[in-house]
């Protein structure tokens, strides 16, 4: 089997300005944050970002990386709104395709099936159609029903974070919800997966049943071992959301001076520096509580 | 027992009533009062409904209020998000959702306030509201009934109202009731919002005054009170910490 291990910098070096990138996970859950942080460090811009969005969207939009956003929502789950995204939205100027969640998944499925569109009831009668003038409806050839024809959401690159992988890119999701990460990979030309841990293939079933092997290496271009790579979003069962840090992110994002300080403290170095800064953040909080 | 019933408890019983003829389907409930209402329905008149933990699991015994399956309860099925959209499409689901705006035909907005291109306030987005309303019964829970919420026309139709559904030919569209801290509303033959009942202790004029479109509440009956059995379940079994009373403003005893 091929050895697909690589570094964060290798994966991001193959992404070009103007590309369409899909980001797996859901809200503030199992987002490939280490890869997102590597994107922030790059000079890549004008991306079209496809996401059921969380802080991945807020961070990339605030850093000026995004020309166009295709999304079902942007939320931090335990905190309903991401202030970086809402600020960008209220400033205007972002090109947007906001879909109903089910429509979004239909678009992924169309791309994964190599169809130009798939029909769905979701969206009919709503202002999602008015807000997305590119969307067309289609009459059923078999009845008098009419459906939204959701265009395929194809991507150049999909970015995913997983619990485990082998060196060949057989991907394992150990948490309660695989979200739509398998569809992203099938809808993309290339897929990079960051993972908590790379294990020998024969050990993949040590921690979960065969049902957890939902993404085959046939869809995976490269795997990157990044412990805590989803931080501060969830990566169940390895770790939950770092709620304290998420609160700090939100409070900082609401104030320009505080945001500059946040950037300097957490986002100015590489991934190891980020993880070290998070450890310092928690150590200081603990000290001040004693 | 019934001499200190709160508005929240009346609303919980009204939410529970939504499931009276549901049978075996997934009860999706957003908010504390609707969540308690669904659990109350399962413990009383509708034992067959299927509860979720708000994450990926169907629960025959739900975990403690506000907690996921990881913290207890009994899992009876797995429903990660991909399965949820499949369930929505089969129609085997009901939702009680919230709203930032609702108009007189039940069009609901949770997406944004102002103009789409440059909103005054970006809210949560349309989320699943268009798909939910196109596929299965949807009810709304409004903790603060106000003229800013019940408006002439909404800024972005997320959940589809009766007029829009008819025009779009949606066969599975079904708006049930709107439960607020003042009243229970439903829809007339022509698809317009009307008053089904006003909560005990609420002046019907208050309902009219706090609605941004014409709404006559003068001849409405009173909303039913929870029974003693229901109160016992709400207070001792489902929500011993009283989270319900924190979701509704001025949780005064009314009866």
Rg of chain B over CA atoms, rounded to whole Å, is: 18 Å
- Which value, in Å, is the CA radius of gyration of chain A? 19 Å
Count all strands of chain B and give the number: 13
Strand percentage of chain B: 15-25%
Q: Count every helix of chain B, treating DSSP H or I runs of 4 or more residues as helices.
A: 8
Order the strands across the largest sheet of chain B as they lie in space: 4-3-2-1-5-10-11-12-13
Strand content of chain A is 15-25%
What general outline of chain A do the C-alpha atoms trace?
globular
CATH architecture of chain A: 3-Layer(aba) Sandwich
**CATH fold-level name of chain A:** Glutaconate Coenzyme A-transferase
Average pLDDT of chain B works out at: 95
Number of domains of chain A: 1
Q: How many individual domains of chain B?
A: 1
Proportion of helical residues of chain B: 25-40%
Structure description:
Chain B: GO terms for molecular function: CoA-transferase activity. The complex is a heterodimer of chains A (290) and B (255). Chain A has a single domain, classed as Glutaconate Coenzyme A-transferase (3-Layer(aba) Sandwich). Helix content of chain A is 33%, strand content 23%. Chain A is built from 10 helices and 11 strands. In chain A, the strands form 2 sheets. In chain A, strands 1, 2, 3, 4, 8, 9, 10 and 11 form an 8-stranded mixed sheet that branches. Chain A has a 3-stranded antiparallel sheet with strand order 5-7-6. In chain A, strand 8 (155-165) and strand 9 form a beta hairpin. In chain A, helix 2 packs parallel to helix 3 (55-62). The longest helix of chain A is centred in the C-terminal third of the chain and has 19 residues, at 271-289. The mean pLDDT of chain A is 97. Chain B has one domain: Glutaconate Coenzyme A-transferase, CATH 3.40.1080. In chain B, 27% of the residues lie in helices and 22% in strands. Chain B contains 8 helices and 13 strands. In chain B, the strands form 3 sheets. Chain B has a 9-stranded mixed sheet with strand order 4-3-2-1-5-10-11-12-13, with helices on both faces. A two-stranded antiparallel ribbon of chain B has the order 6-7. In chain B, helix 1 (7-17) packs across helix 2 (32-43). Chain B is globular. The relative contact order of chain B is 0.19. The A-B interface holds A 26, 71-75, 80-81, 85-86, 89-92, 98-103, 105, 120-128, 130-131, 144-146, 176-180, 183, 236 and B 55-57, 69-70, 78, 80-82, 85, 88-89, 111-112, 116-131, 133-135, 156-160, 164-165, 167-173.
